[in-house]
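Entry 12.
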Amino acid sequence: MPTEYFPGLERPRQTTFDDLGTPLHDVTFVVVDLETTGGSPATCAITEIGAVKYRGGECLGEFQTLVNPGMPIPPTITFLTGITEAMVVPAPPVHEVLPQFLEFLGAPESGTVIGGHNVRFDVSFLDAALTAHGYPRLGHRRVDTAALARRLVRDEVPNLRLATLARHFRTRTEPVHRALADARATLEVLHGLLERAGSFGVFGLDDLLALPTMRAHPSSGKLALTARLPRKPGVYLFRDRNGRVIYVGKATNLRARVRSYFGSDDRRKVPQLLRETESIDHLVCAHPLEAEVREIRLIQEHEPRFNRRSKAWRSYAYLKLTLGERFPRLAVVREQRADGGVYVGPLRSSGAAQAVKEAVESALPLRRCPRRVGRTAVCAGPPCVPAQLNVAACPCSGHTAPDEYALVVDTARRGLTGEPELLLGPLERRMQALAGAERFEEAAAARDRLRVLARALARERTVDTVRRAARVVTDGPDGTIEIVHGHLVIDGVPGRTPRALPFPTLAAPELRPARDEIDELLVVARWLLSKRVAARVRVHTVAGTLASALPSVPDYEPPRDAARLRR
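Predicted 3D structure (tokens):
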């Protein structure tokens, strides 16, 4: 895919070992095969152990020994393997063999990988013997040639038996149900399967271990599109045959994440996404924060149809206190204007903004009627229904004195812009009173409104904290990170374009973040204010104020006397 589709994308390059994780030619495989007296490790025992150690095309050694099982060998087993009781009587028992075998195998920390055909069978017998004699179970990673063959050559062979696969790959060693010969044949089959796996972009150990879990589907051939993906943080873009971006994602490990779509991802949209994908672009990022921010910007730029939130930001809404009216009220609006009103948000949807609106109206008797009122006239007729129910003021009909209503509006303004306890306090007291009166359903509704309002106000404080800082520079494990007014600086630019990002002071509270800014601001704010990040990152430059000038909003937890509230 030409890079002009997405300026800044890395051009094709030689894949490095760092990108591949552990290259397969650096992995030490120990292929193991056992002969036993039967099929269950609980009632049967080992009669022979064979193993071959191999790395990078070189045989490092072989291990073979008969084992005295301490029990009779069934005639059917003797017929199958040719191992008789006379052969195993002089052989060492398993507790004498285990130390030698473990030394040959090597510790899990050495990176040795156990291989085998139906390797779970062999490992189950070894684990049973190890635990019976005081050793820990084998902790090595494992490669099963049967599972790999099921994924790679199922359509080419009549069955997945070792003898069938050995004939298919024309191995020099024929499996004859003796441990060492079968281990040698299994190793040759493994080599053949690794060559096939290379066509699926499998060059590292982690890819090989994940390959058997990838379900076969019509798009499995597109695994080769992931061959150049590095194991680094970044963003990836799925494109269709016309070069259009149809999906954008982020990852701390690009290769592992994109390959997971071909196996472990169960979302319903994935098969259709893979069918339409013709190329996969990627952009390596310096750290996971950059990957997360770039993902947000690219989704907003391309609006990929397979991304659920590609157009979600267009539906974000604000809660507005209409200070420009004679009798201000709360309203849910799509856009903010410099009209003197107090705005909260943007919030995730009109429904989310409506929930916050209802919470504030439960705390204060703001008028709820949507009609506009002139500067001098008073509406004729009775008060509105909420006022008659005594849950709202009605200054437009004279039911509430203008001076009295002005105090209510001022309390709402202060609660939304700097004194959250003015709104949270009445709701919490109402919830406790209802719970004390055993009106649990009403108390639960008050509790839910309290949570909604507390989270919305805490979200406002979080965003405002980082927007107050004109410039923040940090040093840490991910290098130097620069943030300007809550926006991550990438390639010298805060945001998608070098636009001015003025912080809204309390003197102009209507200037809230734009709808296309809020997602990035939240990501950056939560990263910068995270306790986990703070333990690893040093802030060495701050222009402005990196602290909230407003009281913090507590993470509300229902009090003990409200623990019985029912939903």
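Annotation: Residues 469-544 form one domain. The longest strand covers residues 46-55.
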